[in-house]
Write the structure tokens for this entry.
Amino acid sequence: MSTTNMASTASDAQPPTTPPPTQPLHALPQPFTTSNLEVLTQGAEALVYKTTFLTPSTPCVLKYRPPKLYRHPILDKRLTKARLLAEARVLVKCRREGLSVPAVLGGDWESGWLVLEWIGGRTVRAVLDEWVHKFGLRARDGKTSEEEVKRELDEGLMEVVAEEKESQEAREGLMRLMQMVGRAVGKLHEIGVCHGDLTTSNLMLRTPERKEVVGRGPPRMTVSAQREAAMSGQDPPEVIPVQQEETKETNSLEGDVVMIDFGLATQTIHEEDRAVDLYVLERAFTATHPAAEHLFQEVLRCYGESFKGAKTVLKRLADVRLRGRKRTMIG
Amino acid sequence: MIAIGLEGSANKIGIGVISHPSSNKPPIVLANLRHTFISPPGEGFLPKDTAIHHRAWVVRLIKQAVQQAGAKVSDVDVICYTKGPGMGPPLQSVALAARTISLLWNKPLVGVNHCVGHIEMGRAITHAQNPVVLYVSGGNTQVIAYSQQRYRIFGETMDIAIGNCIDRFARTLMIPNDPFPGYNVEQYAKRGKNLVDLPYTVKGMDVSFSGILAAADLLAGQISDDVSYGKRLKSEEGDLITKEDLCFSLQETIFAMLVEITERAMAHVGTSQVLVVGGVGSNERLQDMMGLMARDRGGSGFATDERFCIDNGIMIAHAGLLEYQTGVTTSLEDSTCTQRFRTDEVFVGWRD
């Protein structure tokens, strides 16, 4: 309670030195490998790597939850185990029920890793961004209000549709994509799972698998032969890199929708949780661009038709929107 | 420019005098006085009694603060007071005092958001540029980041505030309220070593503490001396669980929850600086945990000492003066207070 010069009180605020970020320190058991890791993201909870499974040409995702030094070791073990198992169980359940989600290839809750199937393709967010980029440009100049931009966008879209057949296809493709998203989310909810973090970044548009181009030169090991060799613990034979046709930077809207990142998923059939899932997705859409709201209507339409309780969830969604848990309540 | 700040949103009344010499020099604290209303063990502070306490102390503290600051009344540029959020009666009594001296001295008023006061004071003390802010106190639990002229709330408690949880936990175990329950819980926790399972509730960037209180009620019954040895709660090694162990478990659990949501917000925003403000921010264990987390992310954790993180008048003066310098004042008619005043309602005109 004394007179203090504030500059002199900053002593406890010196930034400490920075160690490198945590890497999985242990080696993974066969047939998993930590040899050629490529960091995809560092989330709050897990480090996500790309690595390979069985053969050097089969990519997979390694999700590693490093021990949190700030947490009590017992608590840390408990949480890591519970979350890793919950995620794996939800994925297995979805898979069993026929949903498109990454397959679980392996995991260990003691050391905190989970290996998942690699999903090729683009995120729905990337698809939407591209769409906004493509059709949003002509609406930019001189327009300020959101409504105007929106109207202009729609008109622009219509114009383009009239002009080019290609854009007509793009539009139909987008609508098809939205329908797939709506049905996928509906199916997920129907089997009693809520995603918990349903954003456009967690929805992938998986491009159809490309046929392998037959390699030239000497006869080579087929992928299945390599897998067998790896399973039986033999030294993998020398691999001649499989000439895969590189997935072109394609604008194709073909493929199926795959949901990823079930780290926050819960097994629940509460309308509230389902409605919040949709609300989060809606926010992700509108954050991309005001005009994406129209597209989201199509998602909701398909969702509403997807399972028996879906209509009541949509009603609940209206409540969730109005409520906005974080609204001020004066009076 | 000199500002006087009046704070009284909870059981502490604080009067501070601050000077901003010029825009590129650090602010100078001229006076920072505080008096706390302490309720007996097993009880919380009631709004009515707290207001009486504040009314009894406000004149004395203002006189002392002005004297200690060595400033003349004519040197004061603006009077800042807490507009909210907080308890109604204490807020009203302090707002009344602010209006009175504003009329007496003929100085403009600025109503300040209590949370923004904490954030700005923390930034000024630690020189953290653009941190994710964890604001933890008796009435608030929020993870905040700055974006486009607002302090935006990324995560918060879904039910009670963390300080409230600690206070009520202490009350259940009959831990004294002097100097404040959180401090005593911290001292008990330093002597605890067995971790007892408590509900750990994190949903995305939000947390919930009410389950912990329900658990505390049950646990308190199982560690009392009135219970036969066979029924006492024991650790895996067979040691009797003590109050100290419960305090230790409480801290480990709820602080881990806080650090987790803060980390999630940092990953979301993409920053590596974190600043802890508010009364609970004076807890050394929380500061340590936050520092460890920030270091793992290649950044740093910032915290202030109890002079500035426990409610005080200086932070109100500081934030109010920042706002005053952008040309904002509160007219006498508008100099009300409100129990609910969200952090993101304030237009932050003084930051880029």
In short: Residues 130-308 of chain B form a domain with the Nucleotidyltransferase; domain 5 fold (CATH 3.30.420.40).
